[in-house]
């Protein structure tokens, strides 16, 4: 399915143009933020999808989380990419286009661009303004690169862009963001990506491993409290964007490792009995009641390779760190 070019984002004449594509422009058939939040908060147990973390402020906070000393996934994955980039380029490079899912601040892609030299780069993110800001910086810093910004919710079906030329597409999905999906949902997402790639199309993906509880829980409870603020940003969104009479001070952040499910869970815990309205729905919370806001599944190397294999991918390369904290896999669609 070809995508209409919505606009070209650049202003001063000395800036390089970013091609902007919007798959969230037409609300037909899509849940609004109000509808999505209401569905979760009227369910039992209560929940909010983690994709709603990522307004502009949430994206900024997540970028800060990645810089916290307790948050090992970012620095570990970056070290793997930096030390293995020549091997990654040998396996995944050539005449390629790079499509990054959840591009965020576009830090990690910079470790790959000079070695892989893609014809096109496509950053895919749900936060429109944050996406445009960071793809524009990338275009300014890499004037030889054709840069596209695709605003899309890849937690739902979406379409990869049809780009000019015959380069082979390689999807880059860093940060163990695949862990925010249940294993079933992760398999479905991998299947959707697989089905949009041609034979030989690639997937370079970072995955957090199962490990010691203390290390995992510290990563989601940083001493500076940035993850706490990230979680509470959901309450700010309810108040500021949905006009709910609710206060972040009435909730507390909770994150723990659910060992039986191999996942970190994040919750917001109501600190008192409270009632607020979302449109025509009344939400009544008791003191101590949880709103489940995120899961982050952890995988063994073999477990994730099996999951990707069931989606139709064939393993072509694997890299890890000396402590076995994190994996980077390269898969290709064989048929």
From TrEMBL:
> Which terms does the UniProt entry file under GO BP?
methylation
Q: Which domain of life is it from?
A: Bacteria
Protein's name according to its UniProt entry:
Dimethylhistidine N-methyltransferase
The alphabetical list of record keywords is: Methyltransferase, Transferase
Question: Which NCBIfam families does this chain map to?
Answer: egtD_ergothio
Q: Which GO terms describe its molecular function?
A: methyltransferase activity
Report the PANTHER family cross-referenced here: ERGOTHIONEINE BIOSYNTHESIS PROTEIN 1
Q: Is Methyltransferase among the key words of this record?
A: yes
SUPFAM superfamilies under this entry? Answer: S-adenosyl-L-methionine-dependent methyltransferases
Tell me what organism the protein belongs to: Kushneria avicenniae
Residue ranges the record marks as coiled coil: none
Q: Which InterPro entries match?
A: EgtD, EgtD_Methyltrsf_superfamily, MeTrfase_dom, MeTrfase_EgtD-like, SAM-dependent_MTases_sf
Q: Which residues form the Histidine-specific methyltransferase SAM-dependent domain?
A: 35-332
Q: Which CDD domains match?
A: AdoMet_MTases
């Amino acid at each position: 399915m070809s995508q209409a070019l919505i606009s070209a984002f650049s202003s001063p004449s000395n800036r390089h143009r970013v091609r902007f594509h919007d798959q969230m422009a037409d609300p037909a058939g899509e849940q609004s933020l109000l509808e999505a939040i209401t569905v979760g908060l009227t369910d039992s147990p209560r929940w909010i999808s983690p994709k709603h973390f990522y307004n502009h402020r949430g994206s900024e906070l997540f970028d800060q989380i990645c810089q916290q000393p307790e948050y090992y996934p970012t620095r570990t994955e970056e070290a793997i990419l930096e030390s293995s980039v020549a091997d990654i380029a040998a396996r995944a490079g050539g005449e390629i286009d790079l499509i990054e899912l959840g591009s965020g601040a576009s830090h990690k892609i910079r470790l790959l661009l000079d070695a892989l030299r893609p014809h096109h780069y496509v950053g895919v993110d749900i936060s429109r303004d944050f996406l445009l800001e960071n793809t524009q910086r990338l275009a300014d810093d890499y004037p030889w690169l054709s840069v596209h910004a695709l605003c899309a919710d890849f937690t739902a079906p979406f379409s990869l862009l049809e780009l000019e030329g015959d380069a082979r597409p390689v999807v880059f999905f860093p940060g163990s963001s695949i862990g925010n999906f249940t294993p079933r949902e992760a398999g479905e997402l991998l299947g959707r990506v697989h089905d949009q790639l041609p034979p030989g199309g690639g997937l370079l993906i970072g995955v957090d491993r199962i490990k010691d509880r203390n290390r995992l829980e510290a990563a989601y409870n940083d001493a500076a409290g940035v993850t706490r603020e990230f979680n509470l940003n959901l309450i700010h969104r309810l108040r500021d964007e949905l006009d709910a009479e609710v206060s972040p001070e009435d909730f507390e952040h909770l994150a723990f490792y659910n060992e039986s499910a191999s996942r970190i869970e994040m919750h917001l815990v109501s600190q008192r009995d409270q009632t607020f309205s979302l449109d025509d729905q009344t939400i009544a919370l008791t003191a101590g009641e949880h709103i489940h806001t995120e899961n982050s599944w952890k995988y063994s190397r073999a477990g994730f390779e099996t999951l990707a294999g069931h989606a139709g991918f064939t393993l072509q390369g694997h890299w890890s760190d000396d402590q076995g904290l994190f994996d980077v896999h390269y898969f290709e669609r064989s048929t």
